[in-house]
């Protein structure tokens, strides 16, 4: 379960203001450069939010619904350019909103905390889905093939083969003579 920091420090909120400004700048540049990419990102994020809402029962549904804000933002910006609005005007509006929001975040701690918690809540279902997807890919595309190859060649690093002749599976170890060894686990 992803936990959202409901009491961010002043430093966290200032950093968030800078990141918000950078995010608005990046979205504006993408709107100028390749607005169709924003529509593609909106589609992918919408699917991620839907999967997160459907499968993640660990967080409240109302907070999960905020996840549709990010794909909505990308869809509005990309859709405005696709509908014929001048890309420079759309980018300018995004940049102006980013500067205004960042200044407001830096100047008003109450507003900053509200925006911060809302933003983190909006990113939660996307982050949950993406992290589960990455973990599944690592497991099925890296670890499973390694296990299959190890089994194929008879490699058993945990020595799990049963030996009916063995009286015990205990393996004697040298006793630790140096007390400092207790502080070096590996």
Description:
The longest helix is centred in the last third of the chain and has 44 residues, at about 110-150. The protein has helices at about 10-35, 35-55, 60-65, 70-80, 85-105, 110-150. It is mostly helical and about 190 residues long. It is elongated, with a radius of gyration of 25 Å. The chain is about 70% helix and about 0% strand.
Short descriptors:
186 residues, mainly alpha, elongated, 6 helices
Number of strands: 0
Question: N-to-C SSE series?
Answer: HHHHHH
Strand content: under 5%
**Poorly predicted tracts of residues:** none
What's the main sheet like? none
What class do helices, strands and sheet pairing give?
mainly alpha
Q: End-to-end span in angstroms? A: 30 Å
């Amino acid at each position: 379960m992803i936990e959202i920091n409901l009491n961010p420090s002043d430093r966290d909120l200032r950093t968030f203001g800078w990141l918000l400004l950078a995010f608005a700048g990046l979205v504006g540049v993408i709107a100028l450069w390749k607005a169709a990419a924003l529509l593609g990102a909106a589609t992918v994020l919408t699917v991620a939010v839907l999967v997160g809402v459907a499968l993640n029962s660990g967080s409240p549904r109302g907070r999960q619904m905020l996840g549709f804000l990010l794909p909505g933002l990308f869809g509005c910006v990309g859709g405005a350019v696709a509908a014929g609005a001048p890309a420079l005007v759309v980018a300018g509006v995004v940049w102006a909103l980013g500067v205004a929001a960042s200044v407001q975040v830096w100047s008003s701690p109450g507003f900053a905390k509200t925006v911060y918690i809302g933003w983190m809540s909006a990113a939660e279902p996307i982050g949950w889905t993406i992290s589960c997807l990455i973990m599944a890919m690592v497991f099925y595309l890296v670890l499973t093939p390694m296990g299959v190859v190890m089994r194929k060649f008879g490699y058993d690093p945990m020595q799990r083969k049963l030996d009916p002749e063995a009286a015990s599976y205990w393996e004697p170890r040298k006793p630790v003579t140096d007390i400092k060894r207790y502080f070096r686990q590996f």
